[in-house]
Amino acid sequence: MNNHETVRDAAIRLxxxxxxxxxxxxxxxxxxxxxxxxxxxxxxxxxxxHERFVTVxxxxxxxxxxxxxxxxxxxxxxxLTVGKTSITIHVDVEAERFGHQxxxxxxxxxxxxxxxxxxxxEKVRIGKL
Length: 129
What we know:
By secondary structure, the chain is of the alpha+beta class. It is about 15% helix and about 40% strand.
C-alpha cells in the first residue's frame, strides 16, 4: 500500500488470536471465511438500509497469503450488484503484520451473495420488511 492510496473504511477490523490458529501457526481459513461473511453482511445493511440478510453463496474465495497470530486484519467490503431480493458483495482482506508496522498484505478475497429476508425468514424485496 502506498501513500497515494485512498483511505478505506473497513467493515470490520480485528487482531487474530491464538485460538484462531491451526497446528501450523496460521489462522484457519474457516475463521477468515466467517469474518468475510460478517463483513459482507455489514456492507449489505449499510448499502441498502435493509435490516436482515442471509448468506446464499460464497464464490471465488482466494487465499493469497497466510494470516498469523497478532496480525491486525481488515475486511473491506464493496457492493458489486443489487437485485430485487439479493445483493452481491466483494470482500478484500488485508493483514497488517504484527511487529512490522505499516506492512500490509492482501491475504484473501471473496465474493458473497446475500438474500433479503423478513422477520419470519421469508425472502423479500430489498427494503421491504
